[in-house]
Structure formats: structure tokens, C-alpha cells
């Protein structure tokens, strides 16, 4: 059966960071359905299936992590079916919102925010129905970037690019519960049973650290009961995004090319989607994708992966059974960077 079967009415939404827009594509034909302008510069995207809205994090005024003209404070709420903005939620004085996670049972949205002079980096808790902040959880790190919660909605995990630990937060008490030693971390995903967290590391620094200056690249496997790293799934290069499919596949977006010895800027080379069996912790294969994979999502049945590559401003659609690219979507941009956040939106029931 075709991996496209049964997707009539489903939509893929893709952020263009420099284009300050969200593009919508038919999940069967890959036809562009429309493009919505949003506040500059959007980064991450999350679909709330209960309220059928997209949450879009606007992180910087321009530029990117490590080189930007200042932090923004907004979350944009989008009606994907109508392709219009419903509301812009201002989190000020919090700034630099980026990582998004949703607890649909409790109606709680969690958003990472960067540190300021009077407060450390942390997680803002938002009432997803009222779209109002409920509180803040400290992470004891300046820039928590990505965030994920366990299936029970009791524990959250924030990765910290430049702090040597993953922050573990108690979502019920809204406190920092633990720090798990990881040498700078990127994307993460929590297993369906909540027993393990998969964390990409080390920090990509921004795509420029020479190999001998950094710890070994790989996906750290954290045992949530002991809050310790119990295994490392090796990758050939630094990985940034990590995603778990409903079929139990662990997907990692790996950078490509070697750092220049003089400029220390990474060559623009194709990246790789590396695929593991999450339970067996065994690599199943890899697929070449666009330049600098930054975000990954998958179809609800776990058969298709979508890999947004920010430097090439493309999205690769990958058949995970055959481990091959079915198509590549070009995402409009007005400079660097390009394709960033992704969300798969099933058709209304």
C-alpha cells in the first residue's frame, strides 16, 4: 500500500524563518494550498488537536541563535483550516520563546524562554484554552531551547545548548527537579512509555566547532527513573533534531560536511536522516536530505517523515519503510535562514 494512502484532507504546515510565513501543503499531492504571513521571525510550530490551532513561536527580531538583533516575545495562534491568525499572545517581559510542548489532557502549553538580567531561563506555562500565562518554571540555564514532556504530563525535559546538562522539571510543582549531565544538547524526544529520553548532543556550536574540540556526537539515552545517561547511539556528525514516530522509530537529523579549519564555518553539504529502532537501540539506516536538518515530524501512522532543512530551505518527505525520499518541497524565503518548524495536521474528524 502506498505510504500516501488514507491521507486525503491532511495538511503539512511549514515555517519559513526569514520569509516570516507558514506554508500549507496537501499531504497527498504535496500541492501548496496557501501561505500565511506571520510576525518575524517564526521558529517552531505545534499543532493542538483539541482546539485545532497551531502555536507558532516567534523567537528573534532577525537572525538566529547566537547571532540575532534581539529577542521577541510573541506566540502566534493560527487557525490552520481557515489559514488565518486568531491571536498574537505577548509573553513580555519573557523573551526568546522557542521550544513548544502540549499536555492535551490538562490543556497546558509549555514554552521555553531565554534568561534576562533578573531571571534565569525557564519554561512558561500557558492555559491553552484561555491563551494566558499561568506560571513559570526555572531551568537554571540561560537558554533552554527545546522541550518535551512525558506521556503522564508530570515531568518535562529542557535541552540546553550551552549548559552541560538537561533540565528536568516537575510540572505539577513547577520546580526544577534534577540536572542530567549532557555536554550541551540539541533536540530531544520522550519514549511512549516515559521510560527514556533521547537527546542529541553535543551542541552544534553553531555548526562550527572542529571535531577534536567537542565530545563524541550521538543520541544520549536517558533512563528517566535514575535520571542518568545509560547509552549513546553514535552518529557520524552532530545531530540537531530528534523525533520519535508512533511506530517506534527514532529519527535524528544529522549535519553534513566537515568544519573549515580556518574559518571554522561548516561547509554546506547535504545532511542525513538517521533512523534507529528506539526500543532495540539499533540503527536501521540513513537517508540523504537537504542542508542542515533542523526539525523533524512524522505522519500519525509513522510511515512518513518530514525533515525541514534550514540552510537549503527544503522539506524532504521520506518513506520510512523503504528509507527513500519521495519528494522535496521548496519553502519560500527572503534570505537566510529558511525552512524551520513543522506540523502535521490531520483532516477534521
From TrEMBL:
It comes from Streptomyces roseus. Coiled coil: none annotated. InterPro entries: Host-pathogen_enzymatic-act, N2O_reductase_N, WD40/YVTN_repeat-like_dom_sf. This is Surface layer protein.
